[in-house]
Amino acid sequence: MDMNIILFDGDCNFCHGGVQFIIKRDSRKQFKFASLQSETGKMLSEKYSLPKNIDSMVYIENNRCYLKSTAVFHICRKLDGAWKIPSIFLLIPAPIRNAMYDLVAKNRHKLRKNAQCKIPNKEDLERFI
């Protein structure tokens, strides 16, 4: 089985919220998670030659690395139910999609400034690498 890995900014409450969103909609437990700041995140960042100051969610599937909106919509394809529908936006050219992604990424620390990170239960904790 191929491993689907999502790298996220471990210092960002908005990103933690995104991880929780994915976990709730991934009943088949297809995804593993690692923060970009973790040893695993650093190793994968190096393996895929990611920029040192990456400001994007990263999705690794079948040894291919996706960034920004492309990562988000490839993840959507694997989520439960109607959450697959947004993957249709992959038909829009990446520069257009990424303009919106960059706007959200630029302001993400403000968007969930006061949110508290959920402590994962044992079952969810096993999905973090």
TrEMBL record:
GO molecular function: protein-disulfide reductase activity
Transmembrane segments: none
Taxonomy, superkingdom: Bacteria
Cited InterPro entries: DCC1-like, DCC_oxidoreductase
PANTHER family for the chain: DUF393 DOMAIN-CONTAINING PROTEIN (PTHR33639:SF2), THIOL-DISULFIDE OXIDOREDUCTASE DCC (PTHR33639)
Name of the molecule in the record: DUF393 domain-containing protein
